[in-house]
Amino acid sequence: MPFIIAIDGPAASGKGTIARALAAHFGFHHLDTGLLYRATGAKGGDPVAAALGLGPEDLGRDDLRSAAAGQAASRIAAIPEVRAALVDFQHRFAAQEPGAVLDGRDIGTVICPHAQVKLYVTASDDVRAARRAAELGADPAQMLAELRERDRRDTERATAPLRPAGDAVVLDTSTLSIDAAIADAIAAVARVR
Ligand code: C5P
Q1: Section 66-94 average pLDDT
Q2: Does residue 1 register a pLDDT over 90?
Q3: What digits encode the pLDDT tens for the residues 38-69?
């Protein structure tokens, strides 16, 4: 049976960096599921058709990392039919040997509730805004407002809201270096693996 690591958390919490590092360390596949929602939102038109028709060319677009793409993603991510259209792809990805790391908002709660390891990665709002501002070369105050709006939409939606799974290990990266956060995550997986 493949080994699954589910990583959830708000934007700019460090979950993507941790997911990539875990995949490299354990030799697992990695899927940034936020990219599926960003690509669906960026495609335009009927979002359910866009989600069902996603191809490699959609996922490779270079405008997907922008704050605007994040906002568009969180709007279409609240539509239950859009989420349902993306489930199969994520399940097939998670079934790959020897294992897979998926990061997003609902991996431990909805997509892979039987994952062997669940991490909920978080950080203070100010730290997350500063990180995202540095990454995108944007204003921290503006990033803070943007992140809070997106977090609110992601936590308050009716379908698959962002929240830690009951059995998730919570990792607060506010005061951790990247290396320390990765070491903690590897230790959490190694306890089970
Ligand atoms: O992780 P990222 O910031 O790229 O995600 C963009 C948006 O996609 C999130 O704000 C959220 O609304 C949505 N998303 C989701 N479920 C996931 C991954 C992302 O609803 N598993």
Answers
A1: 97
A2: no
A3: 999 999 999 999 999 999 999 999 999 999 99
Query: To test ligand 1's pocket by mutation, which of 64, 74, 75, 110 has the most ligand atoms within 8 angstroms of CB?
Result: 74
123 and 161 co-located in one domain: yes
Centroid of ligand 1 to alpha carbon of 41 (angstroms): 11
Pocket of ligand 1 contains residue 106 by CB under 6 Å: yes
Here the tokens at position 85 are 């259209």
Cis, peptide link before residue 161, omega less than 30° from 0: no
Q: Does some domain include residue 93?
A: no
Ligand 1 centroid from CA 106, angstroms: 9
Ligand 1 centre to CA of 105 (Å) is 6
Domain range spanning residue 73?
34-85
Instruction: Say if residue 125 is in the same domain as residue 62.
Output: no
Q: What number is the average pLDDT over the span 119-143?
A: 96
Q: How far apart are CA 24 and CA 182, in angstroms?
A: 11
pTM greater than the 0.95 cutoff? yes
Residue with CA closest to ligand 1 atom 10: 74
74 lines ligand 1 (CB under 6 A): yes
